[in-house]
Amino acid sequence: MIFRILQFSAMLLVLSAPRILQKWFKMQVPLTLYIVIAFFAFNALVLGDGLDFYGRYPWWDSFLHFHSGIILSFVALWFIHVMMAEKSKYIYMNKYFTCLFLVVFSLGIGAFWELLEYSCDGLFHTNAQQYMASTKGTLVSKKDIPLKGHEALKDTMKDLALDLGGSLIVATYGFIKHDEILEKRNER
């Protein structure tokens, strides 16, 4: 029960993050970002845990990690554009550095997420890191059997690889569109 309360509290925090950015930092947050974050939170918490998509569909966690890599990279790209608009005379982002930043930002948040999963598994005896051989669901019972050795690390490494894959797609998009985006910014 404590795990569920913390999980839904985290969902409320994630859902309110764009409004917090808008209010505290006076940043214009695109409606698309609100929608994508709400969609992701719904998929992860309501469908994933609430309706046990993690347990029923073994690919569900991979689907979400791949999409989180994409979402986080677009958040990083949006952040760069906000910075460039505010300080356009002082900041020019090289396209290679922009791509590197997108990937590192996404992987950094992905690694932080894996640390949270590890902590929840230890504190609440959950299976967020999929270290149980007998279930793919988040909640485990005393009957479940843990994986051993290297097998227990596969989920974490796969999740980070999927975060990387999603971020590389956005980095490629950012690389291709970089000059076009800068031209549009300079026309304003």
Structure description:
There is one protein chain. This protein is mainly α. Helix content is about 75%, strand content about 0%. The chain has six helices and no strands. Helix 2 runs antiparallel to helix 4, helix 4 crosses helix 5 and helix 5 packs antiparallel against helix 6. The longest helix has about 35 residues. The chain is elongated. The N and C termini lie far apart (about 50 Å). The mean pLDDT is about 85.
Separate helix tally: 6
What best-fitting shape do the alpha-carbon axes yield?
elongated
Low-confidence stretches: none
Ends: how far apart?
52 Å
Question: Structural class, judged by helices and strands?
Answer: mainly alpha
Salient structural properties:
0% strand; mainly alpha; 188 residues; elongated; 6 helices; 74% helix; single chain
Secondary structure layout plus pairing:
Layout: H1 2-25, H2 31-50, H3 53-56, H4 60-86, H5 95-124, H6 154-187
